[in-house]
Structures are given as structure tokens and as C-alpha cells.
Amino acid sequence: MTRLLITGATILALLAANIWQYNQVQKQAAIAATAQQSAADRLATIKQLRADVSEREQARQRLESTQQAMAAELNTQQIQIRELKRDNEQYRQWADNPLPDITRRLQQRPTFTGAGDYYQWLLSRGESLHTEGSQASTEQ
Questions:
Q1: Distance CA 136, CA 4 (A)
Q2: CB half-sphere exposure, 3, CA atoms < 13 A
Q3: Most CB atoms closer than 10 Å: which of 22, 75, 93, 119?
Q4: Range of 56's domain?
Q5: pLDDT per position as a tens digit, 32-71
Q6: What is the mean pLDDT of residues 116-121?
Q7: How many folded domains does the chain comprise?
Q8: 0.70 exceeded by the pTM?
Q9: What is the pLDDT of residue 108?
Q10: For residue 85, how far is the Cα from the chain centroid?
Q11: Mean pLDDT lowest for which of 65-74, 81-90, 102-111, 117-126?
Q12: Are 121 and 110 in contact (CB under 8 A)?
């Protein structure tokens, strides 16, 4: 009978050890799955960031190309203006005259640091922005 009790106790101890070991394996599997998902998420983020960098670099190159084309066009126009001034006396006299006061005032604006500054400037001039659908007082 003692032998039977010892055998039963040993079997129960081994069963308990197996259950504990199974639970430990399950916990480790859950941790591994979480780590794998986290790594997959990070990899996806890295891929997206690389795609964003590539897209921005392409946009930067397009802007640089546009800027170069605009600079070349401006240079061409400036050369044409210089040639006109050199070759055409009437144009030279017109170009040398200062702009009328009304025209110069149209080009004078303070430096704005945001939409709020622009809005305050309009209000100080007695003007205001109109919502879509409403009409300005001069358009009525």
C-alpha cells in the first residue's frame, strides 16, 4: 500500500510538472508571437518611411528642375528687357519712369506670418474676407 501511495504521488508530481511545463511553453509561444508581430509592424513602418523618403526626394528633384527652368526663363526675359532698353529709345524712356503712386501702393504689403496677420491687415484697411457664397460689398 505504501508503494502504491508513493507511485501515485510520483505520478501526480510528474503530471503537475508537465502541466507547469506546458503553461511555460504556452507563455513563451505568446511572447514569441507578440515579438514577431511587433517586428512585422516595425518592418512595415520602415518600408513606409523609405517609400515616403523616396517620394519626397522625387518631389524635391521635380521642384529643383522647375526652379531651374523658371530661373532660365527669367534670365531670358531679363536679357530681352536689356536688349529692348538698349535698342528702343521709346521703351527705355517708359521703363525709366517711376510707377504711378496707385500702382506702387498695390505692390506694398507688410510681411505676413500667417493667415491671422493677413486678416488683421485687411481689417485695418477696412476690408474683410467673405465666406464662400457671400458677396463683397463692391460686388453687390
A1: 103
A2: 0
A3: 119
A4: 1-96
A5: 999 999 999 999 999 999 999 999 999 999 999 999 999 9
A6: 84
A7: 1
A8: no
A9: 75
A10: 45
A11: 102-111
A12: yes
Residue 114's φ and ψ, nearest 5 degrees, are 175, 180
Sign of CA dihedral 107, 108, 113, 119: negative
In a domain, 75, yes or no: yes
Which cell numbers in the block locate residue 69?
527652368
Residue 138, domain member (yes or no)? no
Q: Does residue 77 belong to any structural domain of this protein?
A: yes
DSSP structural state of residue 97: S
Residue 139 has pLDDT above 50, yes or no: no
Inter-residue contact 128 to 122 (CB < 8 Å): yes
Q: How far is CA 88 from the centre of its chain?
A: 49
Question: Residue 111: inside a domain, yes or no?
Answer: no
Q: Residue 21 CA to chain centroid, in angstroms?
A: 51
